[in-house]
Amino acid sequence: MLHLPARRGHRHPDLFVPGVEGRRAHVTSIEGLATGDQLHSVQEAWIEEDVAQCGFCQPGQIMTACTLLATKPQPTDDDIENICRCGTYYRIRAAIKNAAARMG
Given 37, 42, 84, 100, which residue has the most CB atoms within 10 angstroms? Predict the structure, then answer.
């Protein structure tokens, strides 16, 4: 899962970004978020808020949350879209707000 910096305030749906586009941008994978042994604020918030359900979509959720926070450091509930169809949406919202507070 790749995180491409947002352009003009729009998030990229990761699976639909042409590979060529990534060559012109700084690309961060889920593995590249942490700094050494220190997890990224979003990763820490995901753990603290117990967001994970099955784990399959966690990288995409976390990278989408990072993009949201990069473009809107203090998102409102309306800014936080339902980025997963599982039952953890309320925990996703709590984790994004948690991470915003950590980063802010």
Answer: 42
